[in-house]
From TrEMBL, chain A:
This is Acyl carrier protein. It holds the Pfam family PP-binding. Residues 4-80 form the Carrier domain.
Automatic annotation (TrEMBL), chain B:
The lineage of its organism: Bacteria, Pseudomonadati, Pseudomonadota, Alphaproteobacteria, Rhodobacterales. It comes from Roseobacter insulae. GO terms for cellular component: cytosol. This is Acetate--CoA ligase. Its EC number is 6.2.1.1. It is an enzyme of class 6 (ligase). Keywords: Acetylation, ATP-binding, Ligase, Nucleotide-binding. Residues 59-427 form the AMP-dependent synthetase/ligase domain. InterPro entries: AMP-bd_C, AMP-binding_CS, AMP-dep_synth/lig_dom.
Length: 82, 581
């Protein structure tokens, strides 16, 4: 999967959870949960949706690599390239 | 199914602060408990003195009181001496702004050291401290600050811009806004004020009945309730910390609750400090690996957490826990909603000790019913009443009250008032407060049973309140926010079961003529709700309906929505006038 595909998937899934947040307005390198105002439950919903949509495993141990929007895009792009 | 009790090794029971429950109950008196705190001459006292200064002055100033772990994982230690000085500085900052006795100081902050310093510094001045959860959106913040009559608030530059700035015009009492970082017109810069403030402050001696804390809780109808607690509550915080959490001086203790909720204040600030432990405060949100690393790496002795977090750890599997060892861990407790028996047993299998569930409410100020360290744990039970607390199961019918004493009789869980941390009122709502009492009982609003050995078992809530991830949410507050969307004609909000969060908030919406249900509209409404309520309160699910079930008087029947959601019998529907479609 390309970087752009990963970003599209993330954007769309985030929009389903936090439709009030405009991706263009956020700091893509800052804390994802804070930027999108999502709680732990929302974060789990996001991870579940992404792993289902992209058919990849996203184990808890990898959460430290999903802390910002950009980090998560990189993670997803790298993950599906494996 | 029934689960076997988890028996305690007699050696472990012997080492507990309360080694013999029956004896402790028989011998306990609140007057004796009062002697465990210092107090000031003339029967006066101050929570902040009991929490910090008495330790700093009795040779424990160098002990770490608060170890803060930042999101990025950096650690910062505050000794009792440091906290004493910092809270003195904060008290002087307030004094310099003319804020003192009886004024309301709010905090809207994440778990940062400034929050703890503001809480205790506020109490030193005699002002009332009111924490707000930082995941609240502007609407819950506005209503709580308005009801509370906030004079000052401590917040971050970011939270101010996002949630508070636009509300200033609606909050005329709010004169002073302290920012912990950054600058904004009309606000004060806290770091520079703290740097200039003197390090000495004479803590104001308060009467036992002077208000100290204001906590908001949700009601089924109407606005949130401002629950008032007094300085004397510290007596109950202190002894419940000893008995129900088994806190011992010098322990490393981690309460994962946010101080925006009552647990995070009573047992995340006050009880641990009065019992002179070292508190771990983690700024970050829940994360499986990080939590296990914190438990192991900080050598946590006592851990107080919540069912949602425990269930998320269970989901992550045994492997994550097996990567660490927890030799320091001695006692684990849970609160927020009933902990399912599977989770209690999982705790026992994973950590070699069960989670000790306990029960209390914002109104009770402290733990009332608990599984104690020396007592066998009955998985799924909330335990037995604290020494000094009398609990009963009541049948309330046509205004008359009868205590049910048969084992496993179901009724409303009630308590005999009189313990120090009992609420002293709902702010500005005397009638609502009076309704909580009947025939010398405080009515909890929860349904429960008591077994033959005196263990209490939670059955359900007698009202429509929703408990999601341990947070109590009033359906009315959520419905009001959705009603403010231009396309909404009517809305009913209920809690639906969720394996991890206990319940999640679900909204049923009927649209005004001219609006058609669509995915775009659903997302727009979800965004609208999140913007007003914040992620902790906003619904996670929204469903469109042509019409909602209503009574003749037009009241939406949440009970019926819920029965249908769960596939349960619909019960008495004689008042149903207009049904859903």
């Amino acid at each position: 999967m390309t970087h752009a595909d990963a970003e599209t998937a993330l954007r769309e899934e985030l929009h389903r959870i936090a439709p009030d947040i405009d991706v263009a307005q956020i700091d893509a390198d800052a804390d994802l949960r804070e930027e999108f105002d999502i709680d732990s439950m929302d974060f789990l919903t996001l991870v579940t949706a992404l792993s289902k949509r992209l058919e990849i495993e996203m184990p808890d141990a990898d959460y430290p690599r999903m802390q910002s929007f950009n980090a998560l895009v990189l993670y997803l792009a790298g993950k599906s390239g494996q | 199914m029934a689960y076997d009790p988890i028996e305690k090794n007699p050696e472990i029971a012997r080492r507990a602060n309360m080694a013999d429950y029956a004896r402790a109950r028989a011998e306990f008196s609140w007057d004796a408990a009062r002697k465990q705190i210092d107090g000031f001459p003339g029967g006066r006292l101050n929570i902040a003195h009991e929490a910090i200064d008495r330790h700093a002055r009795s040779g424990h100033g160098a002990q770490v009181a608060l170890r803060w772990i930042s999101k990025s994982g950096q650690r910062q230690d505050f000794t009792y001496q440091d906290l004493s000085r910092q809270t003195n500085r904060f008290a002087n900052v307030l004094k310099g702004k003319g804020i003192g006795r009886g004024d309301k100081v709010f905090a809207l902050l994440g778990r940062v050291p400034e929050l703890y310093i503001a809480a205790l510094g506020t109490l030193k001045t005699g002002a009332v401290f009111c924490p707000l959860f930082s995941a609240f959106g502007p609407e819950p913040i506005r209503s709580r600050m308005e009801i509370g009559g906030a004079h000052a608030v401590v917040t971050s530059g970011r939270l101010y811009k996002r949630k508070l700035k636009s509300l200033r015009a609606d909050l005329p009492d709010l004169q002073t806004v302290f920012l912990t970082d950054g600058q904004d017109p009309g606000t004060e810069t806290l770091p520079s004020l703290m740097a200039q403030a003197a390090e000495d402050f004479d803590t104001v001696p308060m009467a036992a009945e002077d208000p100290a804390l204001l906590h908001f809780t949700s009601g089924t109808t109407g606005t949130p309730k401002g629950v008032v607690h007094v300085h004397e509550a510290v007596v109950a915080h202190h002894v419940t910390g000893q008995y129900a959490l088994d806190l011992k001086p010098g322990d490393v203790y981690w309460c994962t609750a946010d101080p925006g909720w009552v647990t995070g204040t009573s047992y995340g600030i006050i009880a641990p400090l009065t019992n002179r432990v070292t508190m771990i405060v983690d700024e970050a949100e829940f994360d499986v690996t990080r939590w296990y690393e914190t438990l192991a790496g900080e050598a946590v002795n006592v851990w107080y957490t919540a069912p949602t977090a425990i269930r998320m750890l269970m989901k992550a599997g045994a492997g994550a826990a097996q990567a660490q060892a927890f030799p320091a861990l001695r006692f684990m407790a849970s609160v927020g909603e009933p902990l399912n028996p599977e989770a209690v047993i999982w705790g026992n299998d994973t950590f070699g000790m069960p989670f000790h569930d306990n029960w209390w409410q914002t109104e009770t100020g402290g733990i009332m019913i608990a599984n104690f360290a020396s007592m066998d744990v009955r998985p799924g039970s909330m335990g037995r009443p604290m020494p000094g607390i009398e609990a009963g199961i009541l049948e309330i019918r046509d205004g008359s009250v009868r205590e049910l004493t048969d084992p496993m009789a179901m009724g409303e869980l009630a308590l005999r008032p009189g313990w120090p941390s009992m609420m002293r009122g709902y702010l500005h709502e005397a009638a609502r407060y009076r309704k909580c009492f009947r025939d010398g009982w405080y009515l909890s609003g929860d349904l429960a049973m008591r077994d033959a050995e005196g263990y209490f078992w939670f059955v359900g809530r007698s009202k429509d309140l929703i408990k999601s991830a341990g947070h109590l949410i009033g359906p009315f507050e959520v419905e009001s926010a959705l009603m403010s969307h231009p396309a909404v004609a009517e809305v009913g909000v209920i809690g639906v079961p969720d394996e991890t969060a206990g319940e999640i908030v679900k909204a049923y919406v009927a649209l005004k003529p001219g609006h058609t249900p669509s995915e775009d509209l659903r997302l727009e409404m979800l965004g609208h709700a999140r913007k007003h309520l914040g992620p902790a309160v906003a619904p996670k699910e929204i469903l469109f309906r042509q019409n909602l079930p209503k009574t003749r008087s037009g009241k939406i029947m949440r009970r019926l929505l819920k029965a249908r959601e769960l596939g349960l019998p619909e019960g008495d529907i004689s008042t149903l006038e207009s049904d859903e479609a």
